[in-house]
Amino acid sequence: MTSRPVIDDLSSFWMPFTANRQFKAAPRLIEGAKGMYYRATDGRDILDGCAGLWCVNAGHCRDEIVAAIQQQAATLDFAPTFQMGHPLAFEAASKVAAIMPDGLDRIFFTNSGSESVDTALKIALAYHRARGEGQRTRLIGRERGYHGVGFGGISVGGIAPNSKAFSGALLPSVDHLPHTHAPEHNAFTKGQPAWGAHLADELERIVALHDPSTIAAVIVEPLAGSTGVLVPPEGYLQKLREICTKHGILLIFDEVITGFGRLGKATAAEYFGVTPDLMTLAKAINNAAIPMGAVAAHRNVYDTIVNAGAVNGIELFHGYTYSAHPMAAAAAIATLDLYAGEQLFERAASKAPKFEAAAHALRDAPHVKDVRNLGMVAGIELESRDGAPGARAYEAFVKCFEAGVLVRYTSDILAFSPPLIIEDDQIEQIFSTVRKVLETVK
Ligand code: PXG
Ligand code: PLP
Fold first, then answer.
1. Which listed CATH number (3.90.1150.10, 3.30.200.20, 3.30.70.3450, 3.30.70.920) goes with 20-58+343-438?
2. How many angstroms does the Cα of residue 140 sit away from the middle of ligand 2?
3. How confident is the model at residue 4 (pLDDT cuts 50, 70, 90)?
């Protein structure tokens, strides 16, 4: 690809989660976006197969969201939400609450998924302390879980490279459930695998090992996104819920990716019919137009913490300068109106069978060893090259970009999570491009 030079110097920006030297030697630069497409700096349109980073669920630069942000920028740029308020913060919280599962209608705003995770873990500890069970400090995550990059998130997360360099400084008192990925039983499953619900019973073992009265919370992604689209086995999340309830442990669903329509419902909790006590949100909460995240807390959790002390005392010593930033809140309100007005969650559900069929049509493409999917998420796992894990998927990602389709990759897994406005021919274009690319990848 021949890039039109738009900037002279790539050296100052220390890029996140990027091979900086490799990228800066052959950059891929985006300068615009509209609807289903990015525009690269060489003028090419790139079909967005992953909604940016799983976040632009309504498509790019939607007029309604752009207008809301522009108007807000000129009306109230910033207002504190510590001992102060502005109307849009409350309105945005009510709108989020309205589409949460029953009871999860107390909304704490953050600026990212990572902050949402740290916030949820702290709320869990504060909740138990407010109930007189301050000894409940242990947190349980899961192997192959991604919960962002804060110290809390990497501690409960289950991705070794994300914590290796920092392993001396992780949270103490953390344990991990086994992951649920079992290709020997479940390869090429469409939707939820039938095998694997019993993996939730491991929680009973961990609980018994540590004594249930020491455990504050269990945090899992209902469907693991970043680590390669791991779909929960049938009945697995229900079992986790039962075990948590039995032992007074809070269940946290990290719905940073699954929230706001990705599975064809407002939340994965709604999709699976399993209600957690706390839910972390971010990304599509406002179509990623301005950084924003949130924790949806069950009102019992809120009431327990908020009613514990004196009326004039701050109940939770936690918050961010930009919690419920006016522009982020304006974008959230416009986004949630757009999701409702265009029935985008229902649209995702109606497109899911087509998306599933298109993904699974690649099962006989070169290098493919598994295809898995749920809602508007799919993962295609490739055989790794000998001695070079990740190299094949990276090459496929670069070639797809050159061929005009943006996909995500993680190790040797290609991940697909397009904006929910996608049309049938665009679904075809994504997967036919991937097939052609795989035919050229060594
Ligand atoms: N929890 C989950 C489940 C996530 O997927 C976070 C927390 C952290 O959110 P922030 O906003 O702090 O990044 C995430 C983020 C990828 C990819 O390509 C996924 C994420 C972020 C960047 C890339 O899979 N997920
Ligand atoms: N560091 C310093 C010195 C600060 O004063 C603050 C906030 O006032 C922070 C970090 C936290 O920043 P934020 O509230 O944006 O997370």
1. 3.90.1150.10
2. 28
3. low
> With 50 as the cut, is the pLDDT of residue 1 above it?
no
C-alpha pair distances (Å), 67 with each of 88, 228, 289, 290, 354: 15, 35, 11, 13, 33
Ligand nearest to the CA of 145: 1
Q: How confident is the model at residue 107 (pLDDT cuts 50, 70, 90)?
A: very high
In CATH terms, are 20-58+343-438 and 66-341 the same topology?
A: no
* Pocket of ligand 2 contains residue 109 by CB under 6 Å: no
For residue 322, which atom of ligand 2 is closest to its CA? 15
Ligand 2 atom with the smallest distance to the CA of 321 is: 14
pLDDT at 160: 86
Structure confidence by residue, pLDDT tens digits, 237-255: 999 999 999 999 999 999 9
Q: Which residue among 256, 279, 411 is best mutated to probe the pocket of ligand 1, counting the most ligand atoms within 8 A of its Cβ?
A: 256
Q: Are strands 106-110 and 293-297 parallel, antiparallel or unpaired?
A: antiparallel
- Cβ of 49 closer than 6 Å to ligand 1, yes or no, is no
Question: What's the pLDDT tens digit per position in 353-384?
Answer: 999 999 999 999 999 999 999 999 999 999 99
Q: Is 146 in the pocket of ligand 2 (CB under 6 A)?
A: no
411: number of Cβ within 10 Å = 15
E strands along 249-351, which residues? 250-254, 278-281, 293-297
**Backbone φ, ψ for residue 358 (5° rounding):** -65, -40
Closest approach atom of ligand 2 to CA 323: 14
Q: What angle do CA 152, 378, 279 make, to 5 degrees?
A: 35
Q: Which atom of ligand 2 is nearest to the CA of 319?
A: 14
Span 419-425, average pLDDT: 98
CATH of domain 66-341: 3.40.640.10
Task: With beta carbons less than 8 A apart as the criterion, state whether 261 and 287 touch.
Answer: no
CA–CA distances in Å: residue 406 to residues 47, 362, 426, 431, 440: 6, 17, 12, 11, 17
Minimum mean pLDDT among 55-59, 162-166, 385-389: which range?
Answer: 162-166
Query: Going by CA atoms, what residue is nearest to atom 1 of ligand 1?
Result: 147
**What pLDDT is attached to residue 163?**
86
Q: What are the extents of the domains in the chain?
A: 20-58+343-438, 66-341
Which among 118, 292, 321 is the best mutation to test ligand 2's pocket, defined by most ligand atoms within 8 Å of the CB?
321
For residue 321, report the distance from its CA to the centre of ligand 2, in Å.
Answer: 7
